[in-house]
Amino acid sequence: MALKDRVPYGPKGPLGVLVDPMTWRAAPYLLVTGFFGLGWFLVLGVAIPAALTLSVVWVGLPLMMATVLMWRGGAMLERRLMRVTLGVKLPDHYRPRPEHGLGAHLRWLLSDPATWQDLSYLLMLLTLGALEVLLSFWMWLATGLLLVQPLLALLYATTGFSSDLMIDDWAGACVAGLFGVVVLVLTAYLVRGMAWLHGTLATVLFSGDEAGRLRASRARGVDAAEAERRRIERDLHDGAQQRLLSVAVDLGRAQAKFDTAPEEVRALIAQAHTGTKAAIAELRNLARGIHPAILSDRGLDAALSGLAARAPIRVDVSVELDERPPAAVESIAYFIVAETLANMAKHSSATEASVTVIRDRRGVVVDVWDNGIGGAVVSPGGGLSGLADRAATIDGVLVLHSPVGGHTLVRAELPCEW
Fold first, then answer.
1. Residue where a domain stops, chosen among 290, 315, 331
2. Cβ neighbourhood burial of 215 (10 Å; 0-12, 13-18, 19+)
3. Ranges for the Putative sensor domain (predicted)?
4. How many helices and strands, by DSSP H and E, does the chain display?
């Protein structure tokens, strides 16, 4: 995730800092994050050595797997907390899970760079969180004591109650209250600064291997494009080219017998005519698979409506775009919907589906939903993995939500500038 993708704060200036909801969301998080860090340090400080010690016997392997899954779960929870409190969007970038096998799962966990990024963040949380807790606690304590001084002075004037933490003089208490407003603004700026620092460090740690993943996805996209080129060449050679060659042979035979066997010539010409129509149909289907003409001529709305009309179930299509996106975005969106609807027809047992295309501030968002049985997974070499690679060629992201027994949602976020 790039730093530019972080959710921005609200209005600037002292008043803007105080009224910005994100400031007050970040404040409680910064007051408790150090305790989270201490808890994870203690838990991992016991679990990891125990798992390593017991790894000499078989019981250490499931314990190590449970420990890794535990800290990955903790990091996932932290990312969601930071999204709500700090406005930092950090997706889960884990490699696809293997189908079966304890050893395969353990290698999957330990070889994934995201696993060690999660551990680094949780260990960093102890030091960073302790600093945030101490600064936040003392600044909020000082702010609170200064702001309540006028109320404490009023309490002293009416009841005679006194304390070492209060100013008995009314004028001094009012000055302290005004100074408390200044400290409140400074505390809000400190909260914002610590939130920015925390979010930036988390972004660096959690996204350290994102460039490598993007390069790998783009490499797979290039490989897929090369495989598609070979498929088109093979289809042309085995299909339309052979039909056209047969047409040429028939016409040659008809020319040779034009004067001697007119009835046989008619049959050969009719056969050539049929072969020509079949070759045209194959070329049309091949061109539609490369880039449908309706997409170029009339845009996504018409092209996706055509896909929906050919689907075996009812598919609602909603395209809300003020202007046409770049051709690459249109093409990728079209083929993502086409592949997803094809998979839905084969595997989901759905009775209805919907396709929604909208434009947000980052680009085009494509949602394909169905009410099928769920359970779809992104597996290496699978259709959904290929769609993710296709989206990654323009820095896009494909997200799958498909719980077993539930509905399936495939979302593609495709930037219009890259």
1. 290
2. exposed
3. 29-205
4. 14, 5
Domain shared by 83 and 170, yes or no = yes
Q: Which domain holds residue 253?
A: 218-290
31-76 pLDDT, tens digit per residue, is 999 899 899 899 988 888 888 888 777 777 778 888 888 988 898 8
Lookup: tokens for 64: 């190590």
Write out residues in the chain with pLDDT < 50, as ranges: 1-11, 418
Residue 27 lies inside a defined structural domain of this protein: yes
Token readout for 304 is 């996706």
Q: How far apart are CA 390 and CA 392, in angstroms?
A: 5
Taking the CA of residue 308 as centre, how many other CA atoms within 13 Å lie in the half-sphere pointing to its CB? 20
Q: In sequence order, what DSSP letters do the residues of 98-152 get, joined into one string?
A: PSS-HHHHHHHHHH-HHHHHHHHHHHHHHHHHHHHHHHHHHHHHHHHHHHTHHHH
Whole-number pLDDT of residue 6: 38
Length of the chain, please?
Answer: 418
pLDDT of residue 215: 57
Say if residue 235 is exposed, middle or buried (CB neighbours under 10 Å; 0-12, 13-18, 19+).
middle
DSSP 79: H
Q: Quick check: is 213 in a domain?
A: no
| Together in a domain, 232 and 151 | no
Give the type of residue at 45: G
How far is the C-alpha of 395 from the C-alpha of 218, rounded, in Å? 9
Q: Do 283 and 262 form a contact (C-beta atoms < 8 A)?
A: no
> What's the confidence (pLDDT) of residue 9?
41
pLDDT, tens only, 100-129? 666 777 787 788 888 888 888 898 888 988
* Cβ neighbours of residue 369 closer than 8 Å, sequence gap 6 or more: 353, 354, 355, 356, 407, 408, 409, 410
- pLDDT value for 133: 92
Cα(220)–Cα(229) distance, integer angstroms: 14
Last residue of a domain, one of 208, 229, 259: 208
Q: pLDDT at position 349, please?
A: 84
Say yes or no: 110 and 257 in one domain: no
Output Rg (C-alpha) for the chain, integer angstroms.
32
